[in-house]
């Protein structure tokens, strides 16, 4: 009994530790000092109940990553659902899907997963797990996935199952730990540069399409100045809302507002899974998946999960670069994030969704820059997603090119580029980064990361002393297996240039 009482006393003391150490912002010399102190004293519970006030607080800075994540996820959900609609319409004679279908499915994805995983899981149950968002690199493959005969529900089930296996084996954190600073820096530089280039081209194409190319140039110029100014005064975390709003205002003021169409009506999407999967005459018009659907989905599911680790790595690095020392307790746990993404993938697909999920970068990157932990912003983000899905019209604004492209450019891809450059600190890391960038350009970032990690961990590039610090399993077995799995999956789906799909 005494021991039990003592355990309860210790437990009570642990629960109240954050409250005991918390100090009002007015007692600090600067806002940054207050935010750093909050990160250092937080002790969030993994797979337990976390409560506002007792374990974390809401701050005004939480609103920025929440807004950024909402804008980003609307754009990406809309893109992936439209890709499914186009691909399935082309692949099947009896299927005709359009924008209305894509919008409805995107709203389903924003409602149920936002409530269950943003608010409940990442906000209250496990704030060490980053939110489960969208797998951006997989979006260009969705058309190929549909043409290969895959089924969205089968794909979601397989991704979730593979992800749970990898997270149970602690494979995600192992791969992250085996990726050196040089390899990680090269990966971030490539992703940042490639993404920024794509967004700039998208904005210029939009301007050309409405015969107002000068508006795109002006928006980019003003955004660069604003971003530089915010970085100079230490307020870079405001880049997404400030730059996105400015881009929209400039476009409207110069006469491009007519290109913004409000077509998404308020309302609640159909939340009945039977509607989406129970009949071939409604919803996806595919019915329930059969064995052939699972076989066609298999290589894409393997590829998606293989691509999780470099994605998660980039997001955790942002926390490490922006958080103060002794804030390890609030860093995202890669394996917990993988568990959350896996469950969210299966739940989202089962209720009618078609998203391919991954760690939520458009939330995590601004949150890290703003020096905020996961839970407060996660709850705000979840509520915003629910509100947007119900109201409808904000989805049209968030996907308008002057808003969407500038938000992603200033809030995701430029910070990625900067973070990668910060990690390349010496000749050894620059060599590994250069090879990673080269391999990523030659094939794709998954190939670049996997191959460079194998070379780097065996001393063939980068730090020649690195192999002496690693076991044979970490140095050779795991990196080699990663390369083989990635290459096999890419060969199967035709992701290696010059080699046709083996499917």
Outline the structure in words.
Residues 1-25 are annotated as: Disordered. Keywords: Membrane, Transmembrane, Transmembrane helix. With 503 residues, the protein is mainly α. The protein has a domain at 60-293 and 309-425. It has 22 helices and no strands. The protein has helices at residues 2-15, 17-21, 31-41, 63-91, 99-125, 142-147, 152-168, 171-177, 181-209, 213-232, 239-253, 273-277, 291-306, 308-322, 334-350, 361-369, 374-391, 393-398, 401-423, 427-442, 445-457, 472-493. Helix 16 (361-369) crosses helix 19. The radius of gyration is 23 Å and the shape is globular.
Outline the fold blueprint.
Elements: H1 2-15, H2 17-21, H3 31-41, H4 63-91, H5 99-125, H6 142-147, H7 152-168, H8 171-177, H9 181-209, H10 213-232, H11 239-253, H12 273-277, H13 291-306, H14 308-322, H15 334-350, H16 361-369, H17 374-391, H18 393-398, H19 401-423, H20 427-442, H21 445-457, H22 472-493
Helix pairs in contact: 4-5, 4-16, 4-17, 4-19, 5-15, 5-17, 7-13, 7-15, 8-14, 9-10, 9-19, 9-20, 9-21, 10-11, 11-19, 13-22, 14-16, 16-19, 20-21, 21-22
Biased composition (Basic and acidic residues): 1-19
Region (Disordered): 1-25
Keywords: Membrane, Transmembrane, Transmembrane helix
């Amino acid at each position: 009994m005494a021991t039990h009482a003592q355990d309860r006393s210790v437990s009570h003391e642990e629960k109240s530790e954050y409250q005991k150490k918390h100090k009002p912002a007015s007692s600090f010399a600067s806002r940054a000092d207050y935010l750093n102190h909050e990160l250092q004293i937080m002790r969030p519970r993994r797979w337990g109940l976390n409560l506002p006030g007792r374990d974390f607080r809401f701050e005004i800075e939480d609103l920025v990553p929440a807004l950024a994540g909402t804008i980003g996820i609307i754009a990406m959900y809309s893109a992936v659902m439209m890709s499914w609609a186009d691909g399935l319409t082309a692949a099947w004679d009896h299927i005709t899907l359009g924008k209305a279908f894509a919008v409805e499915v995107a709203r389903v994805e924003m409602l149920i997963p936002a409530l269950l995983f943003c608010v409940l899981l990442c906000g209250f149950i496990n704030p060490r797990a980053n939110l489960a968002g969208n797998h951006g690199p997989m979006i260009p493959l969705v058309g190929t996935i549909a043409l290969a005969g895959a089924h969205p529900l089968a794909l979601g089930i397989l991704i979730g199952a593979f992800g749970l296996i990898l997270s149970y084996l602690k494979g995600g954190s192992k791969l992250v730990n085996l990726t050196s600073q040089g390899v990680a820096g090269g990966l971030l530089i490539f992703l940042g540069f490639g993404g920024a280039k794509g967004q700039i081209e998208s904005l210029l194409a939009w301007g050309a399409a409405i015969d107002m190319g000068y508006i795109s140039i002006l928006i980019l110029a003003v955004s660069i100045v604003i971003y530089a100014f915010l970085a100079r005064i230490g307020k870079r975390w405001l880049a997404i809302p400030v730059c996105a709003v400015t881009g929209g205002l400039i476009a409207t003021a110069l006469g491009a507002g007519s290109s913004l169409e409000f077509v998404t009506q308020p309302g609640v999407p159909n939340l009945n899974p039977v509607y989406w999967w129970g009949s071939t005459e409604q919803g996806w018009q595919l019915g329930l998946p059969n064995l052939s659907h699972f076989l066609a989905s298999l290589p894409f599911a393997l590829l998606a999960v293989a691509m999780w680790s470099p994605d998660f790595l980039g997001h955790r690095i942002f926390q490490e670069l922006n958080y103060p020392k002794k804030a390890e307790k609030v860093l995202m746990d890669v394996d917990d994030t993988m568990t959350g993404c896996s469950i969210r993938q299966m739940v989202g697909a089962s209720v009618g969704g078609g998203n391919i999920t991954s760690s939520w970068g458009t939330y995590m990157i601004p949150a890290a820059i703003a020096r905020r932990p996961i839970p407060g912003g996660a709850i705000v983000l979840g509520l915003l997603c629910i509100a947007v899905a119900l109201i409808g019209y904000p989805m049209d604004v968030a996907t308008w090119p002057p808003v969407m492209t500038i938000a992603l450019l200033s809030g995701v891809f430029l910070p990625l580029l900067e973070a990668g450059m910060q990690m390349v600190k010496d000749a050894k890391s620059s060599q590994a980064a250069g090879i990673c960038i080269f391999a990523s350009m030659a094939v794709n970032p998954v190939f670049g990361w996997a191959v460079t990690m194998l070379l780097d961990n065996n001393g063939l590039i980068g730090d020649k002393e690195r192999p002496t610090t690693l076991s044979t399993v970490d140095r050779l077995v795991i990196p080699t297996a990663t390369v083989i799995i990635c290459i096999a999956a890419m060969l199967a789906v035709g992701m290696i240039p010059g080699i046709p799909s083996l499917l």
